[in-house]
Amino acid sequence: MKLDILLEKYAEITLKVGINLQKGQTLIIRAIIENAQLVRVLVKKAYELGAGNVIVDYSDEKVAKIKAEIAPEEALSFAPSYVYDAFEKFAKEGAAFLSISSSNPDLFAGCEGKRVAQMSKSVAVAMQGFREHLKKGSVSWNIIAAASPEWATKVYPKLKVEDAVEKLWKDIFKIARVDQENPIKAWDEHISRIQKNLAYLNSKKFKKLHYTASNGTDIILELPEKHLWQGGAIRSTKGVDYVPNIPTEEVFTLPSKNGVDGIVYGSKPLNYNGNLIDQFWLKFEKGKIVEYDAKIGKEALANMITLDEFACFLGEVALVPYSSPISDLNTIFYNILIDENASCHFAVGSAYPMNVVGGTEMNADQLKEAGANLSMQHVDFMIGTSDLSIDGELQSGETITIFKNGDFAIYT
Question: Are 154 and 201 within one domain?
């Protein structure tokens, strides 16, 4: 099937399943300039579906790298607040937001880590108001992947550029169910399966989760009393169902901020702000990272967990079966959107208010009281392995095996 036809189907899934675009709604699309072909298809499809307006915000990665390399110090702390203020305004007015992920995993390789971290922090500060809308689910939002030459050749280094891009598109279409005879129906069935696991997990109200694996992972996470598992389709505070990530295989909740103890080993490389972090581990005591190391990207890891005062605490715990469609491809994509849906993962930084009963109506102090960590960032990292075991402790003290040999041991 030709690329233009597949992109049409991809756009339809994105807008109908991911965003669930409403008649007359404004859609904001964020993308790098290499994504222009897909963006144009999305814009056309959005108007055909009744969008009131579609606004595209392009960025240029090569310009960002030039800034990281040679811009004066004061420029690194500048983020165009007028852009993010506009995003916040659109969010308040009920717009939907779509981001396209296709960054070069090695974008900032060779750049001074402190300069890249300074740029990252300035953006995080400027986006705080807007991100509150995303975290609370007050707007429909979605992230999808798109092939780009730099990303594709990182994933498939032995292929010519054009062949690598074609191969990456093929994999993206497969994991997004674009290749199905009826993609929308396939997504409905997939979301239904996720909802069954959610119902089971929420019915148990686990007190603790204990993770163990042969790579050395041995960590216990306490869960807040009023935690909620989410996943698949999420209902916004306006009553609109949307799917934040395409692909998505996860169910997730939040750990108690101060209730994480033990050590966890990363199972896949992590692309953090254009720098790779690999072969790393984190040790937690009373929720806080107290020791860490990485054979690759230790400076980037340090920058990640020190972005602000609470970036060194966990904000998310997510369950993904090791035998997921993405994992079965046996490919490291160097892209968090895809890799996190191939593996159980944690996230350092901020928790999602939607993971607490009544959390979307709580203020910051109430969320903290409920056990949630709050930070300027939220960074997922993969910890799932083929032999990962997860035991859940109930309020009664009874233990139930949730994961065995990397996959769900319980099904409804």
Answer: no
From 175, 192, 220, give the residue that closes a domain.
175
Contact, 260 vs 287, CB < 8 A? yes
Residue range(s) defining the domain that contains residue 398: 183-231+243-408
Instruction: Please tell me what DSSP assigns to residue 344.
Output: -
Per the CB < 8 A criterion, the answer to whether 384 and 344 are in contact is yes
Paired sense of beta strands 288-296 and 234-235, if any: unpaired
| pLDDT, tens only, 27-75 | 999 999 999 999 999 999 999 999 999 999 999 999 999 999 999 999 9
Give the end-to-end CA distance of the chain in Å, rounded to a whole number. 37
Query: From CA 118, how far away is CA 113, in angstroms rounded?
Result: 9
CATH at 156:
3.40.1830.10
Task: Sheet containing 26-32: give its strands across.
Answer: 53-59, 26-32, 96-101, 141-145, 245-246
> Over the stretch 255-270, which tens digit does the pLDDT of each residue have?
999 999 999 999 999 9
* 124-149 per-position pLDDT tens digit: 899 989 988 988 889 999 999 999 99
Mean pLDDT of the chain: 95
Calculate mean pLDDT across residues 228-233. 95
User: Domain end: 134, 155, 175, which one?
Assistant: 175
Separation between Cα atoms, residue 207 and residue 173, nearest integer Å: 38
Decide if 236 is inside a domain: no
